[in-house]
Amino acid sequence: MKRRAWPWALAAGAICALSLAPFAWLVLTSFKSAGQVTAIPPVLWPGGGLELYRSALSRFGLMHFVLNSLLVAGGTTVISLTLGTGAAYALARLDLPGRPWLMGALLLVSMFPQISLAGPIWRMLQSAGLLNTHLGLIIPYVTLTLPLAVWILTSYFSELPRELEEAALLDGCGRLGALVRVVLPLAGPGMFTAAILVFIYAWNEFFFALLIMTRRSVQTLPVGIALFQGQYTMPWGEIAAASTVATVPLVLLVFLFQRRIVSGLSAGAIKG
Amino acid sequence: MALVLPGCGGEAQDPNTIRLVAWKFNNPGLWRRLADQFEQLHPPLKVALEIAPHSSTAYHDLLTQKLKNRSSEVDVFLMDVVWPPEFASAGWALPLDQMLPPGEKERFLPAAVEASSWHGRLYGAPLYVSAGALYYRQDLLEHLRLKPPKTWPQLVSQVKMTLAHQGNQDLAGYVGQFKQYEGLVCNMMEFVWSAGGRALLPGDAGGALSKPRDLKAVRFVRDSLIDNAAPRGVLSYQEPESLEVFAQGGALFMRNWFYAWPILNDPARSKVAGKVGLAPLPRFSGGESASCLGGWLVGLSAFSTKPEKAFKLIKFLASEQVQRRLVLEEGLAPARRALYDDPWVLKAHPHFKKLPPLLATARSRPRTPLYPAVSQGLQVYFHRAISDEDSDLPILADTADIEINRLLGLIKEE
Amino acid sequence: MAALAGPRGERLLAWGLLLPCLAVVCAFAFWPIVYSVVLSLHRIVLSLPGLGAPFVGLENYARLLSEPGARHSAGITLAFVGASTLLEVSLGTLMALALDKSFRGRGLVRAAVLVPWAIPTVVASQMWRFILNDRYGLMNWLVFGGDVGSYQAWLASPGWALGAVILADVWKTSAFAALIVLAGLQTIPRDLYEAAALDGAGPWQRFRHLTLPLVLPALAVALVFRTMDAFRVFDLVYVMTQGGPANATNVLQFYGYKKMFAEGFMGYGSAVSVLVFVMVLAVSLIYLKLVGRRLLRGETA
Fold this sequence. Notes:
The complex is a heterotrimer of chains A (272), B (414) and C (301).
Chain A: H1 5-30, H2 51-60, H3 62-93, H4 99-109, H5 114-127, H6 134-159, H7 162-170, H8 174-186, H9 188-204, H10 207-212, H11 221-227, H12 236-269
Chain B: H1 10-13, E1 17-22, H2 30-41, E2 46-51, H3 56-68, E3 76-80, H4 84-90, H5 110-116, E4 117-118, E5 121-122, E6 125-131, E7 133-137, H6 138-143, H7 152-166, E8 172-175, H8 182-194, E9 200-201, E10 206-207, H9 212-225, H10 239-247, E11 251-256, H11 260-264, E12 276-279, E13 291-300, H12 307-317, H13 320-330, E14 333-334, H14 343-348, H15 355-360, E15 362-363, H16 371-387, H17 393-413
Parallel strand pairs in B: 1-2, 1-3, 8-11, 13-15
Antiparallel strand pairs in B: 3-13, 4-5, 6-13, 6-14, 7-11, 7-12, 9-10
Chain C: H1 6-40, H2 59-66, H3 68-100, H4 106-118, H5 121-131, H6 138-144, H7 158-185, H8 190-198, H9 203-231, H10 235-240, H11 252-262, H12 266-300
Helix pairs in contact in C: 1-12, 2-12, 3-7, 3-9, 4-7, 5-7, 7-9, 9-12, 11-12
């Protein structure tokens, strides 16, 4: 087997290159000077330094898109995990009739097309005065990420040894006490995995953000990047810079926690 | 709401900042310079600019979504000339009549005022206009002692004569905009109008595409123009493609907007500089020359928290001095009549003296609150009708009429 | 706390913990679906507020069936879903086979493959739009070099545009398919391979008779997930083509968005959205019925 390893390594190299090259081109572009961005033949060695980043910050107001995204994605993650943890514990450990149905119903929600929810959610938010607010966007995000969080956490909780809780129960803790004192401290890694995936979802979402956030001051990064217009031509350089800023945190997450992400995705998918 | 970022809502709350959502000019920075001038004239008012996306359709979707969300972050916006019925009927734009001094309306081109009005009230101040016109190669026509064609069949025969005489494979006859998009509606309506047709009956009474005159115009485009006097490629042309062909000396005639003139006469961008003529579009015998009105208006949002201040900006943008700047710096045709006799304007753009007769033939596309949907229907019908030689035209037209009648039926029910 | 002890207390606690989650999901996922169905039975036009919202029964659905634009969009959607999922699952399988071998730096490769998946779809769309630009895009330069005259307007020609959107989707999500297949591959015991090799089975035979049957459940799952996701494509179309040129990329989700939010036909747009929902639901049910039992076995493995 060892002898045959190199063609596979070569294939893996090609896969890497194809996966990374287009994005690398965008990152490279973001370090060019304004004149180099659309040059043909393409300029391979960027000579703009941080010029385009400065321009994206000043002309495009990149920072407030980043802040809005952090706020919305952060808020979604906290709320989704809080609600999801309780639900997952109940589903994993407590005696519930119709458990498979509940799990199935949740899975179904994660498959709902956005368009089927958009009109009603938009009308509900409008009548509640929540359009153009961070909370108004967090509500649909929590809804759509809850199934993922619950599935990941349920599979994680089911794998924790029951004996630990039973000991706590014998100590007179009660179920809730056992959850808070014994299970949660152990559930850190599972919750972290769910948090990463929920955060990535909320950071990247575009459809609801486009409908709900029409005010510039509350728009998130994807909306900003999709609608960024120049007065003269397409500002590709600034788009590249903003895109890099939007993506670098995710790339870091992926390289640091790829094992967790993969296991989280499999919990959501394989066991579905 | 605790979740609103500190410091970010600031601009919106500032009672002296007017938010303008605008369509981009070719001239970078022109909007900002206009805004600066306004700020100097009206302290302490400030203008916050938001530049809209690349296409009129994408801009429409974005702007109407803001208005549906009742976003108070829009005070003043640019409107395409086809939008006022929709914006007025939906309650997104405020009528401006009471704010205008008496007699002001009459200082604008009648076609632009008509386009801005709905049920007798004015919903936009005309900023600049455009219209379809026939560009022709003066040198080639003069060579054969031809005058620019008065009728569409004449145009076709002139194409045949010239091409036969030139024997040049790369020279095409007529280019226009026949891709399936908004520009197709403009191009086709010009044929339909000049045959005496109208696509929609007045007063939202229904579709008229299957009426004989409408059919005649569409059949002419399909049978005598496409693949005959015009290359088949025009079915995928928008304005830039047809301009490119014509500027490279690749066509005898071109239908395009006013903006093409300075480009065609700039030797750096055009091989036909100085060889181009400008004429009203041809007609069918028994019809009248007609061109499609284009251009932009300035509207006032119904959700503005400071309509009086916002109106100052509208008045400024519609003023003679700003419109003169738009001509001089951007080459845009003003909506104010007086500027077509203005010595500065004529000195900078001598061809502007040819525009009033062209603008006199300008007509508005069908006017209805459901224009986006009606236009979609027209685009699909026209494109199918002219791109397939074997299509059964009356059946296609009937189907399109039924669809339009259904849409207009909604308005009548209202 | 003592009152909560015992099975009854436990059940109360369970519902208590579950309630917030269920409330959110019911209020903002299930109710909107029901509400969409309700809206789709009414005539609501945003630019004609005087129309009110009359009940019109199945009128919107009848229109949906007869409207050429809707049928065209349904066709485009099916073409997109078919082409992109097939490409993604086959490419993903190849990627998974490569990643399943052990070599140094495998973790890094796996992370690299995840990058396209993690990139915001809007960013990926702008990236491909830039690469496919007709005058200065990298793609034209790679294909035609300095021959500027033959540069293609990929996103502006009806023949290429759908292909370009499919390409962007395949680039972005093949990795997801790969990871699911990989998880399936890793459940196959290594000694089975060694036994097969001892029996003289070649690499192809081993793949055909050993790997493929055992990895089939995972493949099916990847296919289900990719299919349902492909039905929901929106961001790519919005940024790259706006449904054009000449509606060549006007997928149902974008068509419905335009009807509802650009043209203001809330009722008809809702009927489109219900159609998308039913299609996704049907796919998930068909697949789950086909592979459900194997799936359960796969889970225990």
